[in-house]
Amino acid sequence: MTRLAVSTEQLADRAHRAREAVLAMGASEHGTHVGGSLSAVDLLTVLYGTVLRVRPDEPDWAGRDWFVLSKGHAAAALYAVLAEHGYFPPEECRTYAQRHSRLAGHPLRRLPGVDFPTGSLGHGLSLAAGVALAAARTGRSNRAFVLLGDGELQEGSNWEAIMAAAQLGLDNLTALVDRNGWQISGRTEESVGLEPLADRWRSFGWSVVETDGHDLDALRSVFGALPAAPGRPTVVIARTTKGRGVPIFEDRKKSHYVRLTPRLHERALAGLRARRRNQA
Amino acid sequence: MTAAQESPVSVDAWAELYTCSARDVQRRTLLELARSDERIFCVDSDTGGFEDGFAAELPGQYVNVGIAEANLFGMSAGLAASGLIPFAHTMSTFATTRACEQLKLDVAGNNLPVRIVATHGGLSAGHYGPSHHALQDLAILRTMPHLTVLVPADAGETALAVRAAAHHPGPVYIRLGRNATPQIHREPYAFRIGASVQLADGDDLTVVATGPLPVHYALGAREQLAAQGIGARVVNMHTVKPLDQPALLRAAQETAGIVTVEDHVVVGGLGGAVSEVVSAEHPCRVRRVGVADGYLDTVGSEQELLADAGVTVDHIVAEALTLLDPARTDNHHTRRR
What we know:
A: globular; B: alpha/beta; Rossmann fold; 2 domains; five-stranded mixed β-sheet; 15 helices; globular
């Protein structure tokens, strides 16, 4: 199936399956970062489903677009989406965080589709900027995408990269901000606030696109029109909901890291499926 | 073929290198390499001085990321993962303590061919004060996965080390001083990563040193010891990781023991590394000359601060004598503290 032929309904199905997979990983022995994974599922689904030029059966293909999950704690969402696209069998998600699994609490490089292991916040944007610069200087058409958490933007290293990428005019670089508004101790704006976030990026020389991070059509259209302006890197600030799709977790601080008991897993799944039925 | 003939640097060019600091030699060598290999990339963090050289001649292979060492290493990792050969330039102290995590995770952890050029090693920027002292870097770097750590002893060896690093498969850290170096190597030779250079033979004890002044002082100590009828072998350990274990074990077996000399704290650096090797394979006495574990809240020239710290010819001699005669009590090291 060509990318353009993917319907919104198919993307919604994939996103739903990814959310079920995230919950299953949350129900594993160690639990997972459920809230920040669920907020990122739609972004990743549209990115892999319609935008990234990749070959899942040839992950190191030289012509690929690169993706860096800078918010490495959303690993469960990445695993679910990579499996959905054939990087590895979906059943492998059952090995999540088990001894010697390729699926750790934060991504390992040994997993097909992971170019850079992440987990320590504030690394991914520099890595992606380096990839983008290499492509620009060698005349290759590779693009670099990086998914950042909003709380992650409190790490100063991001702003080093933000300044440099604008100075270098890296229009093959796109940063996505999963703006779910939460970090572990509470709301971002009650911690060290990020607003006015769009103005901040803009003042650093980036093109800024703000969008609903759960509107599959909107995301598709934003991603299909990159770069937003020639000669500048683009940031897509995606307004999202932490725990999206699972009513008991939505916009809740406690969804940050959850180890779902069988009962809670059942409730979460029921809520997710009811939501999906109402949408479909 | 002689060793000089095997070297990529000619005998004539060799002598000329000693008119420059190791830092300048590194820049010249990098530019020469980059002219014939477009994968070589000069990543600068506003270190100053590239404007009229590399940046002017090969702007497509140069980038200045600004005063931003975390981004320096992250972007270099991205460049390396894309097939380029980035040389990331900063000072030793910023490379290893400010941007330590990027070095650990993005560069070393990923085993990417980033070459970190770390200037102002040891106390070579002693006049700047403790913010610019780099006395912990070797201890930190020895724990880094995949990383090769090179400490050229002089300007000529710097040219060889940079060439060897350029095409080494994994990440490399090259520690350079800021100042002109005494000439240690009289002529070019076949530099190999991990293969130390025995500068002088001797059967009584071995002095193992790393870095320009430590090696220079080790050779000075050898002369003084020779005047007392003591034969000291002198080894230039230009690669701190991986260590030349065979050379150390020969020293442990063939001589009475080892004195280590470094412009670095005496914990965790060369002395620690040598002790780890011999203690497991062939225990012998090891006396460590270096900077005491502590904070140098002071200022002075490189030589002055090294003298204050006891990294001197006299102290090496004293430690050598103590090593040979453990009953000695009047040694410099004990007196100083």
